[in-house]
Design a protein that fits this description.
This protein is an alpha/beta fold. Helices cover about 40% and strands about 20% of the residues. It contains 9 helices and 12 strands.
Amino acid sequence: MRLRSWWRRSSGRRWSVSNKKYKILIVDDDKDILDLLQYNLEREGYEVRSETKSTRSIETAIEFAPNLIILDIMMPYISGIEICKQLRSIESFKSTYIFFLTAKSDKHLQIEALNTGGDDYIEKITGLRALSYKVATVLKKNLVIRKSVSEIRIGDLVLDRNENIVWIKNKRVELSQHEFELLYFLAQNPKKAITTDSLLHNIWGSEVYLFAKSVDTYVQNIRQKLGRGLISKVRDDRYRLIAG
């Protein structure tokens, strides 16, 4: 299958930050996608449970107690968005990572998925390798991806995800979509030095090929708009938000 060979081309990477066996639940009615994801995530050291029936997803999640859940959106009987709503109403799943993986490229659907409590939204056609990287980012690298958080405040800096607007010292500043996403990712991991590689994969995805210099250009643009002291460069390949 083409999707299988597509992932395999980049699956030589191994994440070895922690020896802990993290648990991942995948809910999707497409068995080919389930088999592909389970095979590759297990190769990367995760304990994976798959579920094809949306009606059994809550029961399976409670029984398995995963660290991260991957949900398809368009499924028979119960949609992934409704499953996310039900999971977020259960105390033990309020902080569990939930990623949506879907064939639908729809901005309104993405907003609804994130407002429901999803932490990220990844398109199947362009994002299978990006999914692998983001799973490792939150579970093994211990970085945060929480796009369900609508507002971040750090000192004089405010990021409004609903409007994609930034305020600095009560002054509204317009950023491009990628500038906002880059700053948002740094703001969710304040004072952590984030590698250029992490920024590239988590902001632009694995199917967009940019050079490290491109990240530097975006950072320079943010500095010009919000102040040069907001983001520091650590060594040659790491950036850190120092606001607040």
